[in-house]
Amino acid sequence: MNQTMILQPMVVMVALTLGVALWMLRLRFKAVADGQLSPGYFKHNRGGKVPDYLARVTQNFDNLLELPPLFYIACVILYLLHAVDGYTLALAWAYVASRLLHSAIHTTYNQLYHRMSAFLVSCLLLGMLWGELGRQVFTAG
Predict the structure, then answer these.
(1) pLDDT, tens digit, 9 for 90 and up, residues 27-72
(2) How many CB atoms lie within 10 A of CB 67?
(3) How many angstroms separate the CA atoms of 47 and 123, rounded?
(4) pLDDT for 63
(5) pTM exceeding 0.70
(6) Measured distance CA(10)–CA(33) in Å, rounded
(7) Which of 32, 48, 49, 63 could form a cystine bridge with 41, CB 3.0-4.6 A?
(8) Distance between CA atoms of 109 and 97, rounded to whole angstroms?
(9) Which of 10, 12, 134, 6 is nearest to 72 (CA)?
């Protein structure tokens, strides 16, 4: 299998993260322009109530910087070990799909049960990816 294929889901995750970051920036400018927050709020992230639409996107951006680094690390290790196979690639793409779904739910209608379900699925998939990586590392050679 072409080992570089594991980089594709990583690129999509980075695109998701950067897309949410740009959306958050746009919404921050909107909140200031609409008079909902003063520009000084962003100096210490204090001194005002963040509108819900901005809070959801900001929280989602924060989420994309929490567990996904473990995804990136696993993918890079799999690539470096030449251990990418159909199973690990499928897990990587499923993880990305679950994070896309989580972000879509979180930043739009934000129904807690749906969001939690998508998050738990992504955690399970990440654990499976690391489990497979561990299996390959401990059984190598």
Answers:
(1) 999 999 999 999 988 888 888 899 999 999 999 999 999 999 999 9
(2) 14
(3) 34
(4) 97
(5) yes
(6) 35
(7) 48
(8) 18
(9) 10
Show the domain range for 106: 3-139
* Residue 36 per-residue DSSP state: S
Which among 39, 47, 133 has a CA at the least distance from the CA of 85? 133
DSSP state of 111: -
What is the count of structural domains for the chain?
1
CA distance 78 to 43: 40
Say which residue the tokens 């955690």 belong to.
123
pLDDT tens, position by position, 67-122 = 999 999 999 999 999 999 999 999 999 999 999 999 999 999 999 999 999 999 99
Grouping H, G, I as helix, E, B as strand and the rest as coil, residue 83 is: coil
85: domain CATH number? 1.20.120.550
